[in-house]
Amino acid sequence: MALSVSFTSFSTLILLCFFASLFPGNAFPSQLYHHPNHRRFASHNYRDALTKSILFFEGQRSGKLPSNQRLSWRRDSGLSDGSAMHVDLVGGYYDAGDNVKFGFPMAFTTTMLSWSVLEFGGLMQGELQNARVAIRWATDYLLKATSHPNTIYVQVGDANKDHSCWERPEDMDTPRSVFKIDKNTPGSDVAAETAAALASASLIFRKSDPSYSRLLLTRAIRVFAFANKYRGSYSNGLKPYVCPFYCSYSGYQDELLWGAAWLHKATRNPAYLNYIQVNGQSLGADESDNVFGWDNKHAGARILLSKAFLVQKVQVLHDYKGHADNYICSLIPGNPFSQAQYTPGGLLFRMNDSNMQYVTSTSFLLLTYAKYLTTAHKVVTCGGMTVTPKRLRAIAKKQVDYLLGDNPLKMSYMVGYGGRYPQRIHHRGSSLPSIAVHPAKIQCSSGFSAMKSPSPNPNILVGAVVGGPDQHDRFPDQRPDYEQSEPATYINAPLVGALAYLAHSSGQL
């Protein structure tokens, strides 16, 4: 069998020998012949990926779905949410593959969607309206969650009981318990992030819907005042319900700085600038913690505040250029301040659980800071190394390209993008037959047979980005493996901005 050579492969061999005779030694150009699956020289369709990255949010919707719902395998769910506390909490997003509405990651998702549109919405063309709709689906809910002064409803659903079932959101019968923070049970972290979400979103609707924008900003101001006055971490008072799912490990100081930064941007009120000046140090402005995600906002706050100095020439914030530079230097290989780890295939690697969230959030910050530096005609200096905006964009592009398929497995980690992508994502609605196919209720424990099945998910959650490969670029594509196979809204949100920039810069928008 080993000696059997087809005519096609024999002809290819003759051609290779011919080319080799033309290019002796190492001069043979490898790009003349490569495997059909080899993506190294292929340009990604960033516009298609952008469309799908926003479409994903429709699959995460809770509440009454609109008539123009595009992911039609989803139906209405959670229509009595909030009734346990006599408040309307219908709507919002499920954070990941479960059926709980966690306010902390939902607020961060909203902030990052808004920031994506603020920086790169002008490049989105036809997707700008879809991005606005995705933001509004969240802010409508956050307005409900903050309707009572000095109170925020921060979670709907008992996570422990929800995780003991594997059922469609349309079928869920686990308790829709409601959890809140107030003066007696403070939560400055989730409150300040909610303020950031409302403030950033107010900028998105300032021209298109001024009255809605004013409502968002007025609420953001009130919510931030509550966060600052009644200080404490929400995972202290609500520990049995929010931990270990979304414990606030980094404390609440980073959210207070982040929230103040967004309110300064949205209001231009000097009181917030003064707050940042007076409290910045105690809130960790110069900490060397270089992780940015749903829990830790330090790096994001530094980048955001650096714009006020670089672009708007707010001199009192000059230190934030240095703080932002320190973050950037931590990511750049080969300089004395480098802290980042990368997989053999080149992916930024922070941790096993949902690592792709750090890839997307870091890529967004790199592209955003590159934009600010370009406007100000500045660079970053890491020891003796000069890092240009062009270098930052190249690093971000490489990360996004890895996510879309330029990796050792030649696999896209965005569902529905490319020829090969995860088939067995850790997501209840995607993994169980839809209402249209199976109208009868699927009971709590009955769904576990689907969860453990090796069969592909019947419903494609288009645009979902999963947790991603391990530190050795391996990805088993197994549904029970939530660390690698579960999508989340906060993975996608910063990617929206990054894809809009890449689609534009490659001439696709």
The strands making up the biggest β-sheet line up spatially as 1-2-3
Number of strands: 7
Order of helices and strands: HHEHHEHEHHHHHHHHEEHEEHHHHH
Largest sheet data: 3 strands, antiparallel
Radius of gyration: 24 Å
Mean pLDDT: 92
CATH level 1 class label: Mainly Alpha
| Secondary structure tally, helices | 19
Strand residue percentage = under 5%
User: Which structural class do the helices and strands define?
Assistant: mainly alpha
Number of domains: 1
Q: Percent range for helical residues?
A: 40-55%
Give the oligomeric state of the chains in this entry, treating copies of one chain as homo and distinct chains as hetero. single chain
CATH fold node name: Glycosyltransferase
CATH architecture: Alpha/alpha barrel
- Rounded to the nearest angstrom, the distance between the terminal CA atoms is 50 Å
Shape assignment: globular
Low-confidence stretches: 1-42
GO molecular function, one term: cellulase activity
Organism: Nelumbo nucifera
InterPro entries: 6-hairpin_glycosidase_sf (IPR008928), 6hp_glycosidase-like_sf (IPR012341), Glyco_hydro_9 (IPR001701), Glyco_hydro_9_Asp/Glu_AS (IPR033126), Glyco_hydro_9_His_AS (IPR018221)
Keywords: Carbohydrate metabolism, Cellulose degradation, Glycosidase, Hydrolase, Polysaccharide degradation, Signal
